[in-house]
Amino acid sequence: MLTAVQAGAYLHHLHLYTPDPAGLASFYAEVMDMAVVDLQSGPRGGTFMLAGPGRRLILSDGPAKTLGHAGFALRDQDGLDGLCARAEAHGLAPTPIVTPLFGPGAFAVTDPDHNTIVFGLAQPEPPRRGLRGPVQHLTLATKSVRAIEGFYAEKLGFAVADRVVDATGRVTTCFMRGNHEHHNLACFLQDRAGIDHHAYEAGEWDTIRDWADRFAAHGVTLMWGPGRHGPGNNLFIFIEDPDGNWIEVSAELEVIHDRPVKEWPHEERTLNLWGRAIMRS
Ligand SMILES: [Fe+2]
Prior knowledge:
The chain is an alpha/beta fold. 18% of the residues lie in helices and 37% in strands. It is globular and about 45 Å long. Residues 137, 139, 197, 199, 248 line the site of fe (ii) ion.
């Protein structure tokens, strides 16, 4: 039985639902520098699989701004077996799943907000050209940070990196990690459940500039940033896709080895050390 951290869990791909798979695929291809690598016919243009260097996205027909699943890859077969055993032992009923992006043995679990999370082993992929920015974290919106933290941290063994706590002692944000990256999964307290945003890690400031120039060339304006988050200390810019999904391009995300969990105050400065923040609650 292994924790998600021992199994080396990292965000590998996302499956988003959209009422317009073809339209959203064009956006991610052009603006997010990905290519359609597979297309399965079906309603409203079918299922699109897009890929760029380190980033993969599946788009298929469904309500806007909803998660099909998040795919977390594990370091090796022992990691996969060990995390599956842990999910089983904690009553999460891991379900075998066949997906083209993971090898045999992948399994799915469902969190308290009905988000589907798939764990598996990454498949070899051809080298891909494009702007640097592997998909790096998924942030959920939830009405119960406690329930989401309980599921991912206590049951699956993601490690809590930081929490944001308001004046009444209520946890409004929890950042969790499956490896040394400060967070590859987080949740924000909101009056709804679903996706808050997903992020690509550009690594360094100059690459954020290149992404912003790319967005400008496609007429996409920044909706937030540039700024620097307190928790994770990462530089960021945000844009919105045509469905209203928030996309973050980040750099310099903290790498954690051993340090205590930090509690941050629920205020704008926590979410943006440089200026204004988009508060979720
Ligand atoms: Fe983020």
